[in-house]
Amino acid sequence: MPVAQLRDHPFLAGIGEVHLARLGSCCEAAAVTFPAGRSIFHEGEDADACYLLEAGDVALQVFRPAGGPHTLETLHGGDVLGWSWLFPPYRWAFDATAVTPVRAIALDAGRLRAAKDGDCEFGYELMRRFAQVVVSRLQSTRLQLLDLYATTR
Questions:
Q1: Measuring CA to CA, which residue among 144, 14, 139, 132 is closest to residue 79?
Q2: Is residue 87's pLDDT more than 80?
Q3: Cα(5)–Cα(31) distance, integer angstroms
Q4: How far apart are CA 137 and CA 88, in angstroms?
Q5: Which of 50, 52, 56, 57 could form a disulfide with 99 if both were Cys (CB 3.0 to 4.6 A apart)?
Q6: For residue 71, how many other CB atoms are within 10 A of its CB?
Q7: What is the rounded distance in angstroms from the CA atom of residue 32 to the CA atom of residue 106?
Q8: Phi/psi at 83 (5° precision)
Q9: What angle do CA 98, 100, 127 make, to 5 degrees?
């Protein structure tokens, strides 16, 4: 994976060259693509990757038994898809579906975990960045739930 491609992703803005090189060693391919309508992963499956979205839109969804899939948030190029690889039992917490054609950098979860565990400075940098993603997603989910409950009363 060319380090320049990683350097250009907003999630990695300002990250050091050594960390970029370590991330490059965790990449599965130069880019992966998903056509519109394709499922990227399902809740409960092994969280075996992390995706740095370069282009396209991805719906993060939960399944409501009474109402089918419900989109909690739509991610776009420049966003990160997937943080479940960080926490045992390493299973996806949501469903993800490509809304439009998607191009992303896929990072191998096993390699990422090994790299962060083997280098505390790198691990801290990843955790700091992913903590911001998790907090943002939780806030978005909270707002969605408030809206969902407001319309069901």
A1: 132
A2: yes
A3: 10
A4: 18
A5: 57
A6: 14
A7: 7
A8: -130, 0
A9: 50
Residues 6+ apart with CB under 8 A from 120: none
**Torsion sign across C-alpha atoms 96, 92, 28, 26:** positive
Q: Which amino acid is at 111?
A: R
Rounded-to-integer distance, Cα 83 and Cα 92, Å: 8
Cα distance between residue 65 and residue 148, in whole Å: 14
Amino acid identity, position 107: L
Expressed in angstroms, the distance from the first to the final Cα of the chain is 50
- The pLDDT score that the predictor gives to residue 2 is 65
Closest C-alpha to 112, from 4, 6, 5: 6
Rounded to an integer, what distance in angstroms lies between the CA atom of residue 148 and that of residue 59? 17
Name the percent of the chain lying above pLDDT 70.
95
| Token representation of residue 33 | 């693509």
Alpha carbon of 114 to those of 29, 35, 58, 85, 109: distances in Å? 18, 31, 27, 12, 9
Question: Taken in order 8, 93, 140, 127, is the CA torsion positive or negative?
Answer: negative
CA neighbor of 23 nearest in space, from 9, 35, 34, 44: 9
